[in-house]
Amino acid sequence: MDATSSSNDFTTKCQTSERLPAQLPDLVKQAIPNHVAIIMDGNGRWAQAKGKPRIVGHRAGVKAVRSAVGTARKLGIKSLTLFAFSSENWRRPDQEVSLLMELFFTVLRREIKKLHANGVRLNIIGDISRFSERLQKQIRAAEAYTADNTQLILNVAANYGGRWDIVQAARTLAEKVAAGEMSSSQLTESALAAHLCMQNQGEVDLMIRTGGDYRISNFILWQAAYAELVFMDTLWPDFDEATFCQAIEMFSNRQRRFGLTGNQIEKIRNI
After folding, report:
1. The domain containing residue 194 runs over which residues?
2. Contact 194/224 with Cβ under 8 angstroms?
3. Residue 9: HSE in the Cβ half-sphere, 13 Å Cα cutoff
4. Marked catalytic residue, from 41, 43, 123, 165
5. Per residue of the chain (271 residues), what is the pLDDT tens digit?
6. What total of structural domains would you count in the chain?
7. CA angle at residue 115 from 76 to 197, to 5 degrees?
8. Inter-CA distances, 224 with 173, 202, 255, 261, Å
9. What pTM did the predictor assign?
10. 3-state SS assignment for residue 28
11. Same domain for 174 and 41
12. Do 23 and 115 reside in the same domain of the chain?
């Protein structure tokens, strides 16, 4: 049964077609998330536990990124969004920030051919204007090099904050209203969503945080409104394919209700 007929059957049974998104049956029956976001936490603690500088943990974390990208491709995930550097991370010691920026540049230069060969499109989200011109140039070149790839979209959040994302979208809409390009009555959820980062991608289905903390730290606040949250004690450098699959299994065993009742969801699943 295709998604269209499933949707029609469900809305006929429940008589709520005006309130239910057409893709709801597909979302409810989802076993593999289309869009996964990961807060990669624990690099510094991983290194400190081994008596090593924090930057060693960040370098080890790059290997975990490679593993996560490979696993996402293998599972057929469409978008993978990784929280690499938040807008709050500038508060860290200057030396660590400088080392992170250099690591980011090095990784972009070294990994981009491998990403391209595997059909991965790189998309950097966040305010990159604060980065050095050299790093900005490398980002633009990497994005252009992989722009036509379709196997996986890899979103890397760098100098990103969920509140910043919403504010920059709202500011763009306000400027359009002031210029007479649209009216205030057109300021809808869909209008704002169209100006957010990742506006052409599906909303986040699953958000994973490693490192044992239970918070989302100002990460993709809008896009993860209905995401399933999985918090793991695993420190990021130890996040491997088995750990990723464990999180996916937790996702597949949950009942996503989207404001409906459990009974309504079961009706959808049984169509």
Report:
1. 34-255
2. no
3. 13
4. 41
5. 444 443 344 333 333 434 455 666 666 666 789 999 999 999 999 999 999 999 999 999 999 999 999 999 999 999 999 999 898 898 888 888 888 899 899 999 999 999 999 999 999 999 999 999 999 999 999 999 999 999 999 999 999 999 999 999 999 999 999 999 999 999 999 999 999 999 999 999 999 999 999 999 999 999 999 999 999 999 999 999 999 999 999 998 876 766 667 777 677 676 6
6. 2
7. 75
8. 21, 10, 16, 20
9. 0.85
10. helix
11. yes
12. no
From 8, 34, 89, 218, active-site residue = 89
**Is residue 163 located within the same domain as residue 92?**
yes
The residue whose two tokens read 């649209």 is: 182
Residue 210 and residue 96 in one domain: yes
**CATH code, domain with 135:** 3.40.1180.10
Q: Is 269 left (phi over 0), alpha (psi -120 to 50) or beta?
A: alpha
The gap between the terminal CA atoms of the chain, to the nearest Å, is: 9
Q: Are residues 181 and 98 in the same domain?
A: yes
* Residues 168 and 237 occupy one common structural domain: yes
Question: Residue 255 corresponds to which amino acid?
Answer: Q
Residue 43 annotated as catalytic: no
118 and 57 assigned to the same domain: yes
What single-letter amino acid sits at 29? K
Decide if 89 is catalytic: yes
